[in-house]
Write a structure and sequence with these properties.
The structure holds two protein chains of two kinds. By secondary structure, chain A is α/β, with parallel strands linked by helices. Helices cover 37% and strands 11% of the residues of chain A. Chain A has two domains: 5-164, NADH:ubiquinone oxidoreductase-like, 20kDa subunit (Rossmann fold, 3-Layer(aba) Sandwich); 176-269, no CATH class. Chain A has a five-stranded parallel sheet with strand order 2-1-3-4-5. The radius of gyration of chain A is 19 Å and the shape is globular. The two termini of chain A are 28 Å apart. Chain B has an eight-stranded mixed sheet with strand order 3-2-8-9-10-11-1-12, with helices on both faces. The chains are: A alpha/beta, B alpha+beta. The interface between A and B is large, with 47 and 49 residues.
Chain lengths: 279, 385
């Protein structure tokens, strides 16, 4: 089994220069930073916001101490641009499901993207796009990953606080189950028979869905060392079908390796393609 | 606080007078906590009146499955144990244990005033009384006393309830923890038709019992209570052979069964969270953006969490096999070394609430089976002259 992601620490310095970059995404994670209402002024005071188009048109040139990167790589242009972002950033943090695992748009990895282009655009020949949507870490080295769709803004604040203080960010990697139990939510799988990805999903959301009588759909991606095989076998044994489980795993974090592989195994046993027709 | 080791008085309390027990406890300043239906289960929460109790409901449990079902009678306590345990109230899931403020004169350290509520727990089962005694050893009887647990425990009033039925996951008879409540309560109830046999086990229990409109517990009623309690004993089918269990597990640390269970275990922490004796927590310092205000926060944690064994640059138990083995060997073996008791009380929660139906009694039985199957090995010493 592989170790949890190795996290590195930035150098302790003076006021950090912060940049926020967007790739293929909905902007929701960047907005989480602007949503930090009570802490926003303190954040603005603690760092120099050098590049953040969602917030200000004032652009200061790099290099930057910390780059927050939102979104996945879906175009040849973005595949080049992320290289430049990496060159300009001392410490690169990916924020959200798109940046850390390709996002919901990585569902196109299981389809023929030319079909999508023909369906959506009157002139598909104007569109320059890649066949797949992939995580930032598939293209450049990433120093820290912040999960979620969207990210948890308290975790974002904690990461910024850590980088300012020069300490390791405190973002645990355990399952959602621990959070359900801490908040006294009764297990929806055991008590209601709902398929729930909580046991293999990364903490961070605060275990919202089970508290509202629905199973976790894994929007924070895989927990550390998730045993997806055992969970899938259990759900197939207790009445769930591949039609329930494929969209559960191939969802907002479809291209996260553990969810991708577990979903692909079910697709294979159901006789479905795992590559969208690509070789 | 219950200190009773014997039953002092025995009376009969009619069903319609159960509310007077809650009224008395509330009038003495207790916050009454008891069983109630929520989220498809019988949980423990604050209750106001007997109307909040799961009257006429029961639970059906098996490995990985819990369902509420209607009973064909009006029993108040006709269920077994649910997803919650009383540790939630004695050992809170999250608490701030210290704060620090940076001032011109340096750091000002403070311990928050934990003015714990006075809880009255209604419906504590024998295995749960045993679990409290296990946690007492951890939090009160070692070198360091946990003041948060201590205050809550000292102030608590315990109304135990004798089980009159058992779930398929129960094995308290194997662990010698029940189902009869013998000590460690202020009052204990046994539900029979028309009411309850009520016993006191402490001065505080005597005092409350004195104020209730009880009637003498006639022999016929006592017989009814005895057979109701026997019904629970008779329904227990699950067993765990504890004979030499410490050495059995510790001498089989490389048994292939650990690899087998590691393919099934999700390492999701559910078993440890529902366990009424698991006591692990992690403590972290949380600061605001300025770094001028810091809180030291304690939260429930679990040996199944990778981060929990992170130290000095690495993870010590970096695989599900080693984490499951750590949990089971601690619970059933090294707990004896550390606390002079088993860490398991046989409540069966870890079996019911495991999403993939892992049953610790089966894991132990599998290891025992394979070792007893082996013929005794001859050693060189046997052949020595």
């Amino acid at each position: 089994m592989k170790s949890p992601v190795e996290q590195t620490l930035p150098e302790i310095g003076t006021k950090k220069r912060l940049a926020v970059f967007k790739f293929a995404s909905c902007d929701g994670c960047q907005l989480s930073l602007l949503d930090c209402e009570d802490e926003l002024l303190a954040v603005a005071d603690a760092v120099e916001i050098a590049y953040f188009l969602e917030a200000t048109s004032r652009i200061a040139p790099g290099p930057y101490d910390v780059a927050l990167v939102e979104g996945s790589i879906t175009t040849p242009y973005d595949a080049e641009r992320i290289q430049e972002v990496r060159r300009q950033a001392s410490y690169l943090v990916t924020i959200g499901a798109c940046a850390t695992s390709g996002g919901i748009q990585s569902l196109k990895n299981w389809a023929d993207h030319e079909d999508f282009l023909r369906c959506v655009y009157a002139r598909p020949d104007y569109i320059s796009t890649l066949e797949t949507s992939t995580a930032i870490a598939d293209h450049v080295a990433v120093d820290f990953e912040l999960r979620g769709c969207p990210i948890n803004r308290y975790q974002l604040i904690d990461v910024l606080k850590s980088l300012i203080a020069g300490r390791r960010p405190r973002t645990p990697s355990h399952s959602v189950c621990l959070d359900c139990k801490r908040r006294a939510t009764v297990c929806v799988e055991v008590a209601q028979g709902l398929p729930c990805l909580g046991p293999v999903t990364h903490t961070g959301c605060g275990a919202i869905c089970p508290a509202y009588d629905r199973g976790c759909y894994g929007c924070f991606g895989p927990a550390a060392q998730p045993n997806c095989d055992s969970l899938v076998a259990q759900y197939l044994d207790t009445g769930s079908t591949h039609e329930d489980l494929i969209p559960l795993l191939h969802n907002f974090n479809a291209d996260a390796p553990e969810f991708r592989d577990a979903g692909n195994q079910i697709r294979q046993s159901a006789g479905l393609s795992t590559t969208g027709g690509r070789p | 606080m219950q200190d009773g080791t014997e039953i002092r008085r025995t009376e009969f309390l009619a069903t319609d007078d159960l509310q007077t027990l809650l009224d008395e406890l509330q009038s003495q300043g207790y916050r009454t906590v008891g069983p109630t239906i929520d989220q498809g289960a019988i949980i423990y929460d604050e209750i106001e009146s007997v109307d909040d109790l799961p009257r006429g409901w029961t639970d059906r449990q098996e490995a990985g499955k819990y369902r509420l079902e209607e009973r064909d009678d009006d029993a108040f306590f006709g269920y077994v144990v649910g997803p919650h345990s009383w540790k939630r109230f004695l050992f809170p899931a999250a608490v701030t244990v210290a704060t620090a403020e940076r001032t011109d004169q340096g750091w000002q350290m403070r311990t928050p005033d934990h003015d714990a509520p006075r809880y009255a727990f209604l419906g504590v089962r024998a295995c749960e009384l045993a679990a409290m005694r296990v946690q007492d050893r951890v939090f009160l009887e070692g070198a360091f006393v946990d003041p948060i647990y201590q205050q809550r425990r000292d102030r608590a009033f315990i109304v135990a309830v004798n089980c009159t039925q058992a779930a398929a996951t129960c094995f308290c008879t194997s662990m010698n923890t029940g189902p009869r409540c013998n000590s460690g309560f202020d009052l204990a109830l046994t539900e029979i038709s028309g009411g309850f046999i009520i016993e006191s086990g402490s001065d505080d229990g005597d005092d409350i019992l004195e104020r209730l409109p009880t009637q003498p517990a006639e022999d016929a009623l006592l017989d009814q209570a005895e057979s109701a309690r026997q019904q629970a004993v008779d329904q227990i089918t699950k067993k765990m052979d504890t004979d030499g269990i410490r050495d059995l597990l510790m001498q089989n640390l490389d048994h292939p069964r650990w690899d087998d269970v590691a393919t099934r275990c999700l390492s999701c922490t559910n078993c440890t969270m529902v366990c009424p004796t698991c006591f692990c927590s992690s403590v972290s310092e949380v600061s605001d953006l300025t770094g001028d205000h810091v809180e030291r926060q304690r939260q429930w944690d679990s040996c199944f969490n990778i981060d929990f064994s992170y130290m000095n640059g690495g993870v010590v138990r970096n695989g599900i096999r080693s984490r499951y083995r750590q949990w089971l060997t601690h619970k059933l073996a090294t707990w004896h070394d550390q606390f002079d008791t088993s860490g398991c009380v046989g409540c069966g929660r870890c079996i019911t609430w495991c999403p993939v139906e892992i049953d610790l009694t089966e894991e132990v039985a599998a290891i025992r089976q394979s070792t007893t199957d082996k013929a005794p090995e001859r050693t060189d010493e046997d052949d020595a002259p």
